[in-house]
Inverse folding.
């Protein structure tokens, strides 16, 4: 089978080697091309969109941000070949998986989510367990590839988000197993029982399963060489917490784990195996004392989450109003401050800006064509999930067009925002035009601006 592969990191490398050993032809793209240099037999691609010319595309991009940059902010999906099936095998947020599914449906491409349980050494041996969800016929088509990559495929359902959330929940359970091993071994050691003896007993009796056996050995012997990096484990715990917040669930044990992981990373353990957070013995920065607020019982963590949500909403509303002010005042510095460098802006009659410089150039072009602007933004519907957010914003605009004179434009902005380095900014904005009305006899009777035809 001809396979396009996007994202050849540590796991992707192992997967491509297994696929080629099984006789499949692999063409791959990676942000850092040198990662492909010593993969004999892999055809290096210069554009991720070229991967979608193959029968099947497998993507193993690191996180939501990478997927958005490489797939959603490009024309890769629009250029896909007929009948192409895309397998997403990395661990992503449910919100992004749902957004990907909508984009794939629009492009006429089948999407299958198939994340794996297994570190690279397990995958290299073909012993991974694969969770798959998507259209049944699409899964049947790619099943021979899944059989190469894992020992068993577990069907989760017909919606990609189902495999996605199963992987997130499973990873969360592994971290809690590590936390329980950490607490239990500290307890028995305090009473003179060697942790190794205790772990050997419980992992052969009460908890005779691979996760407890593997991480029990690591915890008892304080061996935490790189397997699955702690920094990536924290990302997955954050995915679980954000997914829970989206459906109004609390995950108190996950918050305990997150506190321990964060403390371990601040001590420089981010590149060690994710079980390294078990070495953190000082009190965790987690206050679980209940507080009464407006008749409800809450913890400090819950109140902090509410405060963060309010601050995030205020920051996003400031971006929305800042956009209007930047255009109306022709303030290029303000406009530049609103966007991430790789953001996109799509406006009727002005095209698409695919990065900050193109967006700035579009603004200069619009100010030449429309020397007077007044934007009114209203009814923002903002949805925040962790470090990502979406919004729709109604807009009513009065412009002076150099050729047409005064015109009224109304429509809806479709927005995406991301918080990077603790700063919210636009990652994408698209305007949907509802109507444009020339106002040939309109003129202000007072005020500081004149709308004469230029």
């Amino acid at each position: 089978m001809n396979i396009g592969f996007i994202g050849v990191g540590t796991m992707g490398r192992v997967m491509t080697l297994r696929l080629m050993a099984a006789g499949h032809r692999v063409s791959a793209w990676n942000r850092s091309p040198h990662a492909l240099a010593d993969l004999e037999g892999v055809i290096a691609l210069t554009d991720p969109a070229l991967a979608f010319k193959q029968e099947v595309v497998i993507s193993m991009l690191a996180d939501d941000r990478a997927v958005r940059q490489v797939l959603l902010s490009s024309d890769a999906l629009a250029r896909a070949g007929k009948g192409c099936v895309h397998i997403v095998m990395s661990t992503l947020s449910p919100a992004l998986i749902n957004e990907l599914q909508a984009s794939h449906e629009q492009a006429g491409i089948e999407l299958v989510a198939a994340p794996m349980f297994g570190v690279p050494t397990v995958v290299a041996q073909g012993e991974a367990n694969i969770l798959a969800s998507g259209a049944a016929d699409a899964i049947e088509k790619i099943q021979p590839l899944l059989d190469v990559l894992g020992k068993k495929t577990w069907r989760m359902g017909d919606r990609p988000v189902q495999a996605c959330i199963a992987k997130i929940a499973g990873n969360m359970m592994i971290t809690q197993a590590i936390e329980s091993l950490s607490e239990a071994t500290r307890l028995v050691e305090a009473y003179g029982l060697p942790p190794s003896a205790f772990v050997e007993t419980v992992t052969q009796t009460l908890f005779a399963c691979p996760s407890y056996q593997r991480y029990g050995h690591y915890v008892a012997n304080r061996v935490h060489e790189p397997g699955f990096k702690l920094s990536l484990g924290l990302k997955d715990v954050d995915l679980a917490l954000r997914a829970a917040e989206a459906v109004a669930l609390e995950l108190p044990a996950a918050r305990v784990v997150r506190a321990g992981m964060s403390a371990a990373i601040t001590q420089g353990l981010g590149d060690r195996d994710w079980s390294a957070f078990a070495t953190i013995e000082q009190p965790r920065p987690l206050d679980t004392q209940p507080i009464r607020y407006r008749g409800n019982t809450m913890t400090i963590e819950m109140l902090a989450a509410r405060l963060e949500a309010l601050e995030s909403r205020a920051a996003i509303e400031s971006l929305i109003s800042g956009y209007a002010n930047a255009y109306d005042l022709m303030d290029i510095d303000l406009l530049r401050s609103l966007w991430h460098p790789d953001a996109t802006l799509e406006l009727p009659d002005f095209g698409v800006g695919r990065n900050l410089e193109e967006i700035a150039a579009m603004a200069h072009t619009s100010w030449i064509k429309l020397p007077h602007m007044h934007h009114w933004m209203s009814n923002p519907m903002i949805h925040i999930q962790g470090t990502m957010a979406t919004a729709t914003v109604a807009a009513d605009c009065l412009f002076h067009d150099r050729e047409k004179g005064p015109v009224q434009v109304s429509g809806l902005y479709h927005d995406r925002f991301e918080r990077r380095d603790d700063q919210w900014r636009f990652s994408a904005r698209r305007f949907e035009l509802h109507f444009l009305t020339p106002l040939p006899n309109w003129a202000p009777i007072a005020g500081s601006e004149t709308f004469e035809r230029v």
Summary: Residues 2-157 form a domain with the Rossmann fold fold (CATH 3.40.50.720). Residues 241 and 415 are 23 Å apart (CA to CA). The chain has three domains: 2-157, 166-286, 309-438. The longest strand covers residues 405-420.
